[in-house]
Design brief:
By secondary structure, the protein is an all-beta fold. It has 1 helix and 15 strands. Helix content is 2%, strand content 41%.
């Protein structure tokens, strides 16, 4: 059995959740605490790059059973109901948010177990019943998938010193499998080692 894991964390600060409905929480691409399989990726399934500096989506890399966990700290909430939902079908309209944790507990925590498929997108969505916006000071989101399916082999992309390793290249690297590229960063020092000399 192979275990895939992704853990992202919203940097400490104030994020406002507007009144009405749910808001998908976007996590910066630099917020990954653990993501060896590139599940919180700049690269979409079709091989294109996601614009912006963050994404609400964690993509499932293989069929299996997932344990999905979230923890959210609200800043001085005035709402009578703080809602924490984990969706299994991304940010589309009408996403399945069952079950949703709702109440006045702060921080709020949620755990959901589900069968998942490769390419499925998971999001953390928050809502409340207050008339005005409510602020979130911290959020953590973890997805662990237990699967019998091995991942595709990793590709290595060399990144020069002084460049942004998270920036999309001018020409996307060659695709394989479902179009998700693994891009471990090779330190610049390893690229510029002088050739060995005889004697």
């Amino acid at each position: 059995m192979i275990v895939y894991h992704c853990s992202v964390e919203l940097p400490v600060g104030d994020v406002t959740i507007p009144a009405g409905g749910f808001t998908a929480i976007e996590f910066p691409f630099t917020s990954e605490r653990h993501d060896p399989y590139d599940m919180h990726s700049r690269r979409a399934v079709d091989g294109t790059f996601i614009g912006g500096a963050s994404s609400a989506v964690i993509r499932i890399p293989a069929d299996g059973v997932a344990i999905i966990e979230s923890e959210v700290a609200w800043k001085a909430p005035t709402a009578a109901s703080l809602r924490n939902a984990i969706t299994l079908d991304g940010v589309r309209t009408g996403a399945d948010r069952r079950p949703t944790v709702a109440g006045v507990d702060n921080p709020t925590a949620h755990c959901r177990t589900a069968r998942v498929k490769a390419g499925q997108t998971i999001t953390l969505q928050l809502g409340h019943d207050a008339a005005g916006g409510q602020k979130v000071s911290e959020a953590r989101f973890k997805v662990t998938v237990f699967s019998e399916t091995a991942p595709p082999p990793a590709r290595t992309v060399r990144v020069k010193a002084g460049t942004d390793p998270y920036a999309a290249p001018a020409e996307p690297p060659a695709q394989y499998g479902d179009g998700i590229a693994q891009t471990p960063v090779v330190p610049d020092a390893q690229q510029n080692d002088p050739p060995p000399t005889n004697g």
